[in-house]
Design brief:
The protein has 693 residues and is α/β, with parallel strands linked by helices. It is built from 21 helices and 17 strands. The chain has helices at residues 19-27, 45-52, 98-105, 129-136, 155-162, 214-226, 240-245, 247-255, 300-307, 316-331, 346-349, 362-378, 392-407, 414-444, 452-473, 481-526, 534-551, 559-569, 571-580, 586-664, 668-683, and strands spanning 5-11, 14-17, 32-37, 72-78, 86-92, 115-121, 124-127, 142-149, 182-188, 196-202, 229-235, 279-285, 292-293, 296-297, 335-339, 383-384, 388-389. The strands form four sheets. The chain has an eight-stranded mixed beta sheet with strand order 7-6-9-10-8-11-12-15, sandwiched between helices. Helix 4 packs antiparallel against helix 13 (392-407) and helix 17 runs antiparallel to helix 19 (571-580). The structure holds guanosine-5'-triphosphate and magnesium ion.
Length: 693
């Protein structure tokens, strides 16, 4: 075996055997020596196993704080000392990986049926707390499909099909509009494991009974903002009536803002819509026409595109004709159309939910199957600008931000929503990084250390990891506000460790001093040295004990300082001993006094040097830490820049395509406008280089 292979896969807590690995094992007839390694994540297990295989590479090592190995990996190599044996190395995924536990929690979607997400009561839109809580518990990436259209046109019925259920979103069987507000139903994605399919069913537009349709526009706009696939549902053909009904799309420019403060003067804000708008799917229900154009059969998509062709002319009527078409083409570059036959006999329509599939129109059943299959395979995860994928907590915040904006009379703004999200998540990322730092420091550092350098050497890689945790979990950190905050908190935490290191050391040294010098002090009290020649006798004993103290290990970096303080506190006592020693002449006592003072001066000098050294060390550390922040930030910004460029390229490609079509159709003016938009995007500046602290 050239390289290791996965033996047991661990996918979201589900263990499965890899048949390929089993086949390899089956072929080995030699006796096996099996060595397995188990332990906490990121502790060098894979590295050690590679050494057992006699290789530098093999089991993949991670260089980040994330656990690299998942499940159990196997590597069979010839036994290095037993020629007829095979050595089987089993490398396992790290235990206690925090990331894993949060990932595993995620798969729980507990929604037996739909719940109202945004209530529409008394012309007020209110986010429903219960639904928000359900959303916030789902940590998986979300594919969000919303349906919008006129009332009583079978929207809820179709959404139930997407949920794979006969019943769910409630249907009305009378002419009265049934669904109110926006309802949500989260189900496991039928084709993308680890993803959640979020279905948004909305209240029918233009219900005559409602009288006031003020919120219809908002329901339309919110559905566009929240979804990654937006289904517009209507009855019959795409005729002028259907287009007129779609006036909401032209009103989006007045309802949604992409940038909080549009810096563009020449180009309006809606030019940015295309970068975050969902895929547009038109569902035509009870469609009874033949799909033919100039005698040729056409697909539903071609039918949609034909219907979106513009008309020449400058009169009001032509303008009204062109406007919704232009908006759809400009805002929704990705478009799709599905037609559906009438599902059943008239008398069965009112109770469609209870009609067995076998009794439905065969064509309709096929069309629904084709439709659901497209939605499942083609709808992407809801993504915000900057490549930020939406999960439950993020969707929850989006709903709140948008609904609050509408309630307070502002326009929901895409950029603001992302910034709000970023603020919440970046604050949490700082917290997460600090927790990582503290946990690792407590685990890896044995206090007290012998030197400050030693403590800093341990601190450094852990600080890098903490920054990495932050960088990985944060986005759109405007002016590096949160990274600065992290920097400050890390300094605080580090200094707290430095202080603790000193405190622990001081306390320990004091204990040692008491143990070592205690008996001597006792003897002094007893008067053992209060006799001629007693002073030098005392000095001798003191020196011996000092030696003993110096040789005692584990004192930490406060050893000298504590000793000095101790002697200082005993100065008066030693002075008395010296003065009382009658065997010494005054001259000798004077000389001894000078020696003591010289020794003290020397000690003070040493202390000063120590202080300077410490200061230098801390300055170096500050610089190094700054460089680490900058390094990781620069990498992150590079990535973000690339992401942004890719997004821009995509937008430009869409706009170029539309521009070409407009030219072909003979709309020079419109084409020129698009050209301006493209130029504007091309000249928009990439995020500036990093400046922090
Ligand atoms: N003609 C026809 N009726 C349908 C179709 N699909 C569902 N229905 C029936 O139309 C009625 C309304 O269906 P719903 O799914 O509640 O319609 P809706 O668009 O959600 O209605 P509102 O929520 O009031 O906007 C029900 O009796 C359904 O059985 C369809 O494709 N064609
Ligand atoms: Mg409905």
């Amino acid at each position: 075996m050239e390289a290791p292979i996965c033996l047991v896969q661990n996918w979201k807590g589900q263990l499965t055997l890899n048949p390929e690995a089993i086949r390899i094992l089956e072929k080995i007839s030699q006796p096996l020596v099996v060595v397995a390694i188990v332990g906490l994540y990121r502790t060098g297990k894979s590295y050690l196993m590679n050494r057992l295989a006699g290789q530098n590479h093999g089991f993949s090592l991670g260089s980040t704080v994330q656990s690299e190995t998942k499940g159990i990996w196997m590597w069979c190599v010839p036994h290095p000392t037993k020629p007829t044996h095979t050595l089987v190395l089993l490398d396992t995924e790290g235990l206690g990986d925090i990331e894993k536990s949060t990932m595993e929690m995620t798969s729980e979607i507990n929604m037996p049926g739909p719940v109202c997400l945004i209530e529409n009561s008394d012309q007020q839109l209110v986010a429903n707390q219960k639904a928000l809580e359900i959303l916030s518990a789902i940590k998986q990436p979300m594919v969000v499909v919303a349906i919008v259209g006129f009332y009583r046109t079978g929207k809820s019925y179709l959404m139930n099909k997407l949920a794979g259920k006969q019943k769910g979103f409630s249907l009305g069987s009378t002419v009265q509009s049934h669904t109110k507000g926006i309802w949500v139903w989260c189900v496991p994605h039928p084709q993308k494991p680890g993803h959640t399919l979020v279905l948004l069913d909305t209240e029918g537009l233009e219900d005559v009974e409602k009288g006031d349709n003020q919120n219809d526009c908002w329901i339309f706009a919110l559905s566009v903002l929240l979804s990654s696939t937006f289904i517009y549902n209507s009855m019959g053909a795409i005729n002028q009536q259907a287009m007129d009904q779609l006036h909401y799309v032209t009103e989006l420019t007045d309802l949604i803002k992409s940038k909080s403060s549009p810096e563009q003067s020449a180009v309006d804000d809606s030019a940015n819509f295309v970068s975050f708008f969902p895929t547009f799917v038109w569902a035509l229900r009870d469609f009874s026409l033949e799909l033919k154009f100039n005698e040729n059969s056409i697909t539903p998509d071609e039918y949609l595109e034909c219907s979106l062709a513009l008309r020449q002319g400058t009169d009001k009527k032509t303008k009204r004709f062109n406007e919704p078409r232009l908006c759809i083409r400009k805002f929704f570059p990705e478009r799709k159309c599905f037609v559906f036959d009438r599902p059943a006999q008239t008398k069965q329509l009112a109770k469609l939910e209870t009609v067995p599939e076998g009794e439905l129109n065969v064509e309709f059943v096929e069309q629904v199957a084709e439709f659901t299959s497209y939605i499942f395979s083609s709808s992407g995860v809801k993504t915000l600008s900057g490549g930020i994928t939406v999960n439950g907590p993020r969707l929850q915040n989006l709903v709140l931000t948008y609904v609050n904006a509408i309630r307070s009379g502002e326009l929901p703004c895409m950029e603001n929503a992302v910034l709000t999200l970023a603020q919440i998540e970046n604050a949490a990322s700082v917290q997460k990084a600090i927790e990582h730092y503290e946990k690792q420091m407590n685990q890896k550092v044995q206090l007290p250390t012998e030197t400050l350098q030693e403590l800093l050497d341990l601190h450094r890689p852990i600080e890098s990891e903490a920054i990495e945790v932050f960088i990985k979990n944060s986005f759109k950190d405007v002016d590096q506000k949160f990274q600065k905050e992290l920097g400050e908190q890390l300094v605080e935490k580090r200094d707290a460790f430095i202080k603790k290191n000193m405190d622990v050391s001081s306390a320990r040294c004091s204990d040692f001093l008491e143990d070592i010098f205690g008996p001597l002090e006792e003897e002094v009290k007893q008067g053992t040295f209060s006799k001629p020649g007693g002073y030098y006798l005392f000095l001798q004993r003191k020196q011996d004990l000092e030696k003993k103290y110096n040789q005692t290990p584990g004192k930490g970096l406060q050893a000298e300082e504590t000793l000095k303080k101790y002697f200082e506190s005993k100065e008066a006592m030693m002075d008395t001993l010296l003065k009382m020693d009658q065997s010494l002449t005054e001259k000798e006592k004077q000389i001894e006094g000078e020696r003591i003072r010289a020794e003290a001066a020397e000690a003070a000098n040493r202390e000063l040097k120590e202080m300077q050294k410490k200061h230098e060390l801390m300055m170096e550390e500050k610089e190094r830490s700054y460089q680490e922040h900058v390094k990781q930030l620069t990498e992150k910004m590079q990535q973000e820049r690339e992401e942004l460029m890719a997004e821009q390229q995509k937008v430009i490609a869409h706009k170029l395509q539309e521009q070409e079509r407009l030219l072909k159709e003979g709309f020079q003016n419109e084409s020129r406008k698009l050209h301006q938009e493209i130029e504007k995007i091309k000249s928009s500046k990439a995020p500036s280089a990093c400046t922090i602290f």
